[in-house]
Write a structure and sequence with these properties.
Elements lengths: L1 E7 L2 E10 L1 H16 L4 E13 L1 H8 L2 H9 L1 E7 L3 H11 L6 E5 L4 H8 L11 E4 L6 E10 L1 H18 L3 E12 L7 H11 L4 E6 L2 H10 L6 E5 L4 H9 L1
Length: 249
Amino acid sequence: MITISELAPNVQQVKISGKVQSADMRQVVDLAETIGKGAEKASLVFEVENVEGLEWSALGEELSHLPAMWRMLTGLDRIAVIADQSWLRSAARIESALLPGVTYEVFSRDKAEQARAWARGEIDRPHADAVRLVDVGHSSIVAFELDGRIDEDNAATVIKDARLALEKTGARRMMARIKNWHGFDPSLLASGDIAKSKMDFIKQLDRYAIVGGPEWMRSLAETMSPAVDLEIKGFDLDEEGEALKWLKR
């Protein structure tokens, strides 16, 4: 089922759930034709929830109107995709690379209001609050929380804030709490300043706990521990208490 609603002038929300049928896709085609004929750029929010499949007739409906769908893409400014399924978020990011001229961002369902605000143009940085310092009740431990996708700006900000916290407290222990991991912007790989700041930052630590996040990330970090001369240990998200005990030893 597809439900289309207006969030603001030139901003539409397309909610997709259940099984998508031909009549549903007809709504999308009508929307595409409207956007394609519009004089101003439009933005779309796609909210995906419990999709059960796509009827062949629905696919045929879309394929038979490819010119209209393409005209819609050329008339878009921002696209926000709200989905909790990791494969959908990954597929959306791949698709974004194929849409030059369109700003495309992916959000988890708990960030739905943030996605809508960004699509409406109310905020410029879609993932500005993804990383922040948190108080874990121990002055000897500096901690930060990751909830979403890391961009270059918030990576630089959290490194700066954490360094200041380490200098202020004299702490040499750190904990990263990863509530939701949605990847990072590719620009981080090309940022020499971020890489240098991170290495300088690591030199101030002697023990680092990673709580939550993908298992492969924790395993990779533990494997790199000898190379960076830093004790690194991974914990599941519900093992934060154990992580704090380990950091306080």
